[in-house]
Amino acid sequence: MRIALLEDDPFQSEVIVQILSQSGHDVVTYTDGATLLRMLGRSSYDMLILDWHTPGMLGIDVLSVVRSRHKDVLPILFVTAEEGEKSLVRALTQGADDYIAKPFRIPELRARVDALLRRAYPIPYGRLPFDVGPYHFNPQRQQVTLHGEPVTLTGIEFQLALLLFSNVGRTLSRDHIFGQVWGRNSSEYTRTIDSHVSRIRMKLNIEPVNEVRLVAVYKHGYRLDHLKPVDDMGALADADAMAYDE
Asked: For 145-174, what is each residue's pLDDT tens digit?
């Protein structure tokens, strides 16, 4: 999963990145809250880990802004030396999902991160078979069917489709998509992503008639929506006309 870490201590940051990277997570680090908030408008993450005392803007204030701006599910964990009961209660009251005091134990950090991610994203994190309308995905076998018929996808196409379909309703930024599917960062990912999205759109017949639409979100990324079954052509035309945010 893709995690944003707010931590201004280089040593602590390096330790947390190493621990979570060993668990297979992609961790993007920030040293001040204002920069993290700006990037949340451009990029997407599966989880935030916040320190309390950070330059310019406290982690608790970052928490308040994030909860007021971002309505989608975004687990937030505090890892901080601020260990008083009042601070713990304040963080949880304002929307934090969990709280760990420094110095932390490595197994505990891993366990709490995994528990929050599994709770927030049971489908993509659990790698279990799932359905979206007439589509059935089996992540372990890398198979997808549409109305019971198998659809042949390349490995990259399947991973892209799996990421989009397992995050229904979430807008995923282009850098998020590229990092999760291709496994690396690049400034040249736009054309690559767009061409692969076009291919899976055609191969999987991603259209309102199949209860889904793929939305290109201007200057951000893509979002897959699960629609209610369309019973008549008039409603279908209305749904199709609304398929783009650009």
From this structure: 999 999 999 999 999 999 999 999 989 999
Q: What is the pLDDT of residues 84-105, one digit of tens each?
A: 788 889 999 999 999 999 889 9
Are the C-beta atoms of 54 and 42 separated by less than 8 Å? no
CATH number assigned to the domain covering 2-120: 3.40.50.2300
In sequence order, which residues have a C-beta less than 8 Å from that of residue 64 and are 6 or more positions away? 94, 95
Report the phi/psi class of residue 15: left, alpha or beta, with left for phi > 0 and alpha for psi in -120 to 50. alpha
> The pTM is what?
0.80
Give the fold, CATH level 3, of 127-241: Arc Repressor Mutant, subunit A (1.10.10)
Phi-psi label, residue 194: left if phi above 0, alpha if psi -120 to 50, beta otherwise = alpha
- Name the nearest CA neighbour of 165 among 216, 198, 123: 123
How many angstroms separate the CA atoms of 193 and 199, rounded? Answer: 10
**What is the three-class DSSP state of 76?**
strand
